Amino acid sequence: MKRLKLKELESLLQRVDVFEQPKLLLEQYPTSPHIAAHMLYTIHTTFDDIESKLIGDLGCGCGVLSIGAAMLDAGLCVGFDIDEGALNIFNRNVEEFELANVDMVQCDVCSAMTNKLSKAFDTIIMNPPFGTKHNKGVDMKFLKIALDMARTAVYSLHKTSTRNHIQKKAEEWKIKMEVIAELRYDLSASYKFHKKKSIDIEVDFIRFSFK
Ligand SMILES: C[S@@+](CC[C@H](N)C(=O)[O-])C[C@H]1O[C@@H](n2cnc3c(N)ncnc32)[C@H](O)[C@@H]1O
């Protein structure tokens, strides 16, 4: 298959449908096509952690990261999300792009179900909830579970303000952590409580691997 260029990937991801009525408590904001394409392209070209790999996408939502990974020739990408509505949109997206290397599971990532998937995936990719909506600490729970599920590496987005805390945890868990990029994440106007039309927050794109 012809290898996709970064611009081509970004423009394909612009056609991925996103949350129709985002649920605030589940922190349902999609990764923008621009950020998703850059993340996935880096994971692919710099680290070779996508092509032919078994990939998990935790808190996959409508699936932009899984779909992009599938387009970059993942062996199989499995998305996990608690929300049936999001997975319905994800499923429609997969059908629209006629992708055969994507699957999805409805579950609470923080439940015991994921214990059975220890070291079941080569790579975990995720844009987890940040833990700012009555769910404090959920970002670190996602990270701990992702590290348990991955054999090679975890790629994740975290608020830059939590970097020191994550660094301490990574040391405690004997995990190597590399901030690959500092991003500006546009929390779009989908949430009514935001007074401004759009709010940029600083986010780290981080690669975690095993020492
Ligand atoms: C920030 S959104 C990211 C969505 C998608 N990965 C993307 O990049 O566009 C976080 C996602 O995590 C899901 N989520 C929140 N809590 C969850 C949980 N406990 N278990 C599984 N999914 C959860 C939400 O439904 C939402 O789809």
Automatic annotation (TrEMBL):
InterPro entries membership: DNA_methylase_N6_adenine_CS, rRNA_MeTrfase/Polyamine_Synth, SAM-dependent_MTases_sf, Small_mtfrase_dom
Species per Swiss-Prot/TrEMBL record: Chiloscyllium punctatum
Assigned protein family: Belongs to the methyltransferase superfamily. PrmA family.
All copies of domain Methyltransferase small, residue ranges: 46-145
Protein name in the entry: Methyltransferase-like protein 5
UniProt GO molecular function: nucleic acid binding; rRNA (adenine-N6-)-methyltransferase activity
